[in-house]
Predict the structure.
Amino acid sequence: MNLNSLSFRVNEIFYSLQGEGTLAGKPCVFVRLAYCNLRCKWCDTPYAQTYDESIQMSGTELIQKIKSFNCNFIEFTGGEPLLQKDVFPLIALLCDCSYFVAVETNGSCDISQLHRSVKRVIDIKTPSSSEEKSFNTLNIKYLSHNDDIKFVIAEKNDFEFAINLINQHQLHKKAGEILFSPAFNILEPALLAEWILNTTVPIRLSLQLHKYIWNPNERCR
């Protein structure tokens, strides 16, 4: 593969702790690619919605930057990382080189092209985001127990929407974990915990630990 032929619009690359999900607490290199096709009302990375704060990097430059952190766990996020098609061969190369790669995607893009060993975290949008119709249901047939499905919950309607979608498509039987995350500073975690405990659907509460450890308005942590 000619890495110099691959081109990326990168918002930021940083080394931190994974803040949420089933791998929370693990050191991780985050590669945030620029631009998103959605405009969620409570988006916590609006600076990544466009190309305005991005830089152009070749595949070679991106790999060199990743290697500089000496960390085996890499997560591609955004924005929406799967909008940049060169990400697929780059991720495949990283997987073949024994990196553990996770991808957080909003679920609107085709996930089937990702390398078989990638951990896919699919963030299905709820009504309070205003993007609840964005999920590509064709992705359901590609789910495996290596994947996580995440819902950000801001109100009870979001919770009920997510429960109905899970039951309709039996998502808890197709994915590894179903994660419910309270919208930060909008829904109290204790209230979401109460709702979870009052349902029989197997859900895992996921808090954004990095926002409790560091200033939630601070970037690159």
Q: What stands out?
A: The longest strand covers residues 7-17. The first helix runs from residue 59 to 67. The radius of gyration is 17 Å. The chain has one domain: 3-213.
